[in-house]
Structures are given as C-alpha cells and as structure tokens.
Amino acid sequence: METVKAIRQDDYGRGLVDQEDKICFVEGLLPDEEAIIQVDQEKKNYRLAHVVKLLRESDQRVMPNCPYASTCGGCQLLHQDYVSQLRFKKNKVEHILSKFAKIDLLPDQISIISSSPFHYRNKITLHGKDGKLGLKEAKSNQIVPIQKCAICEDAINRMIPSLQKLQEHTKGITSIMIRTFENQVMIALSGNIKEDILQEFYQANKVTSFYYNGLKLFGEDTISVPLHQLVFRCSAKSFFQVNTQNQQKLYDLVLDVIEKKKPTRLLDLYCGTGTMTLLASIYAKEVIGIEVVPEAIQDAKKNQQINKIQNVSFICGRVEDFIKQFQQVDLVIVDPPRSGLDHLTRQSLLSIKPDTICYVSCDPITLARDLAELKEQYEIEKFTLVDMFPNTYHVECVALLCLKNTLKAFEK
User: Fold this and answer.
1) Which candidate in 152, 362, 397, 402 is catalytic?
2) From CA 111, how far away is CA 95, in angstroms rounded?
3) Percentage of residues of the chain with pLDDT beyond 70
4) Global pTM?
5) What is the CATH number of domain 1-61?
6) Which CATH class is domain 123-225?
7) Is 314 in a helix, a strand, or coil?
8) Which CATH class is domain 87-116+243-411?
9) How many of the other CB atoms lie within 10 Å of CB of 127?
10) Is 60 exposed, middle or buried (0-12, 13-18, 19+ CB in 10 A)?
11) pLDDT band (50, 70, 90) for residue 73
C-alpha cells in the first residue's frame, strides 16, 4: 500500500496517478484527491488499484444516493457531482480527438447537452441466479440484488419489488428486460416459470406487453413511442435510446441539419428500426436506410406503414456490401455500433462525397479513428456531446461534417 495523488481522470473516470515507473489507474479516485491505495493488478505498462483510505477529498466528490454504488458495476461516476461529470466528458472527448485524430476543436465548435442525472433510463436488464435477481457486480458475474435503480424511471422501479418476489418464489428467472414509456410497460423474461404463475403476475402488475423466452405471451406485441409527429412501435428486440429526455434532443440535432439542407437523396447507415430514417423523410425527397439485423428492418417497415410514409426504402444487409452502389447522395447519417465504421465504408464515403455527413457515435475512440481518415476531405462544422448516460463515463457524440469546398456555402 502507498499514498498517492490523482492528477486527472482517465477516459473511464478513474483517477490517474503518475508513479515513478508506471502510470496507475485508481478506481473511484477524483482529480487532486490523495489516498492510500492497494494495487490489484500489475501490467506491463500500468497498474490497476483501488482506494483503501481517502486522505483528501475533492470538492467534486458527493455522497452516492444509491445503496449499491460500491458493488454494482453500472454507474462509475456516482461519487462525482454532475457539473464536473459534464466537464470530464467534454475534456475526455477533446483529448481523444486530439490524440487519435489530430483534431483540436475551438471552444465554439464543441458543446454538451446535459440530462437529468437520475431516473432517466427507460430500460434495464436484470439477471437471475440462485434465487437472486439484480445487476452484475463490477468486474464479476455475481448478482447484486436490488430493490430499485437510481438512474431508472419510476415505472421501472415500481416493477422491481414484484419481480423480486416472483424470483424468490420460483427461482426461475435467468434474465429480464423491463422497458417503459409513459404508462406502458414491456417485459421480456427468460427462464423457467409455469405459465399460470406468469399470467397471474402479468394481470396483477398491469403489464402492456409480456414476452417469455423470445415469444410474446400476453398483451400487445409492442409499445408506442411518439416522436415529433410520428408514432413508432417498439418491440422487445427494438433498439431505442434509453434516455427518453435526451433522445429527442439527439434527434433534433440531426433533424435541424436535414431541415436546413433539404437533401434530394439521404442515406441512413446502420439505421436500426428506422427511427431517424423515417423522421428524416419529412425534409428529404428520398431516404434509404441500411441495417444488417432482419428484426430491426421488419420493425422499420412496420413503422413506415403505420406512419404512411412513401419516400423511404430499407435494405437489410451489411453497410459495406451495399454502400458502394450509391453515388448521387447529398447527405449521409451514420450511427454505427461501438466498433465504428469499417475501412471499406470510410473509403466509400470519401468516394461518394456527400456534401454533409452526420456522424452519431457512442464511442469517441472509434469516432476519432474514423475522423482521422474522413478529415482528408471533410471539416467539422459542429461537434455536440449529448449526455445520454449520466453517472457513467459514456457519452454520445454528434459530429457534423461538411465537404471542405461546401462548408461556406452551407453556412450561408
């Protein structure tokens, strides 16, 4: 054990300590805090450690309002006040862009949109084992039984005690997803429980849609999510942003660009269930969405029918297999998985040369890697962070890219 002082936070919110021979990452230590630490792992170029005793606290430190903060691995920044969390995320992204893409943004080029730090999640997945039901312990598969989650919406927290009783009675739940919107509740349960017990639970808890082992058992197939003037049907496998409040703000950022640009042809790559594809149809003459997951494309086509939209088409397949066939494209939206764009897709974008690219990213590092290649022909006109995940180190990025010879024209 030794006494150390953190000089800053790393990209995962850990305290960074510069020791004589190695860098040490200390879980839960904030900048300028001093502590006695215990090294847990010795790596070739760095160490991992935890705090044994905190000697000097930062002004950024707050008391976590969650009884599971020290065991659950879901929220890494509950001990940090929200204002400094936002500052950390902004500094983190600026550092990543500078380091991996050699892009240094001016202060007026990057901003961050905040959120309610608690009760924002509209979806949670709990795990069951040996009669327990809860969240995974940090860096472990052990279950932390919970009665509520501080970052989940109230409608989810009202369900958890009833589910705990069901698990105690049956010991049959292996996992359960709860999703809510307004007064609707969707449950997707996996496990081994008799159907009459599940029916009793369904009726007693006013569940809108109940899935069991991948199949709808009771209630509706979907729940409804209104966005702008459209309505989207959300099934158990549908992807929707988990932060209802900031989902709207995220989409508004992209729609504002589309409304100004009024593209003749728009591509939405990795379109998922087609939420942004269909919203974009209001301002674009033609919109094409590409997505590899068949169930997502099925949901997208259903939502297209519900909203009676004619100027949209969907392609089910890998983006890199289909993007090469497009040439005359004005605007491209990309919202890839954490792995970002593959090399072929990056090269295809540089070949197609759309006037504008709206890049939505959940991983700043893969975004920086992609921007390092795209900056050959594109400039960042605007860069916005959207805090979809308060009290965690995650942050959503929205980068507006314009062809270098069209940037001034767009500004006009």
Assistant:
1) 362
2) 14
3) 98
4) 0.93
5) 2.40.50.140
6) mainly beta
7) strand
8) alpha beta
9) 18
10) buried
11) confident
